[in-house]
Design goal:
heterodimer, A: 118 residues, mainly beta, 7-stranded mixed β-sheet, 4-stranded antiparallel β-sheet, 11 strands, 0% helix, globular, B: 117 residues, 6-stranded mixed β-sheet
Chain lengths: 118, 117
């Protein structure tokens, strides 16, 4: 069974440009999360999808970030325009359910996308 | 809001020895989950061990065990018989069991573990 996959693995863009990150969750996982780790800091929550709906987007830093989940399958995270402080590793995770249920709530992570804004 | 603190940015251990990674957290909730995640150099983060706050018994998974002190809000990870493959960044994480709080994870800053042969 394929795990959570993220594309690209690494992206270097100039300030002001646009970048789109993609996440393919594990098949059948309704819950999809985006997290970000800025260098040396803790991993911070960005948002949570349940199927195609945004359940919680309280962690999105500003309106330069736009997340979508088409048809409840893969998700994209667009940063437009990118700023220097957006550099970091963006992680995607998916889980079958949100809570409890005998570990069906376990979150599986992708390898992350390392974004460098220069 | 909940916070998670890992006070050891780096730790090292000799192969076959035991090492303990520290984690403290702050919450006003009584029901929650605690996790330790491992991120090897390949960067995919994997779950090492989880603890339900209502359980008094400390979780164990093979060579990995936790010391969960609910009153002290402490959740340390002990790795016994350390192996070279244990070298990774370890993250402590918290998740509420209250549905209205969301199912997101709150992470600490991580501890980079080096295993010396």
């Amino acid at each position: 069974e394929a795990g959570v996959t993220q594309f690209p693995s690494h992206s270097v863009i100039e300030k002001g440009q646009t970048v789109t990150l993609r996440c393919d969750p594990i098949s059948g996982h309704d819950n999809l999360y985006w997290y970000r780790r800025v260098m040396g800091k803790e991993i911070k929550f960005l948002l949570h999808f349940v199927k195609e709906s945004k359940q919680d987007e309280s962690g999105m830093p500003n309106n330069r970030f736009l997340a979508e989940r088409t048809g409840g399958t893969y998700s994209t995270l667009k940063v437009q325009p990118a700023e220097l402080e957006d550099s970091g590793v963006y992680f995607c995770a998916s889980s079958q359910v949100g809570w409890g249920y005998s570990r069906q709530d376990e979150a599986f992570f992708g390898q992350g996308t390392r974004l460098t804004v220069v | 809001a909940q916070t998670v603190t890992q006070s050891q940015p780096e730790m090292s251990v000799q192969e076959a020895e035991t090492v303990t990674l520290s984690c403290t957290y702050d919450t006003s909730e009584s029901d929650y989950y605690l996790f330790w995640y491992k991120q090897p150099p390949s960067r995919q983060m994997i779950l090492v061990i989880r603890q339900e706050a209502y359980k008094q018994q400390n979780a164990t998974e093979n060579r990995f065990s936790v010391n969960f002190q609910k009153a002290a809000k402490s959740f340390s990870l002990k790795i016994s018989d350390s192996q070279l493959g244990d070298a990774a960044m370890y993250f402590c994480a918290y998740r509420s069991e209250v549905e209205t709080s969301g199912s997101r994870l709150t992470f600490g800053e991580g501890t980079q573990l080096t295993v010396n042969p």
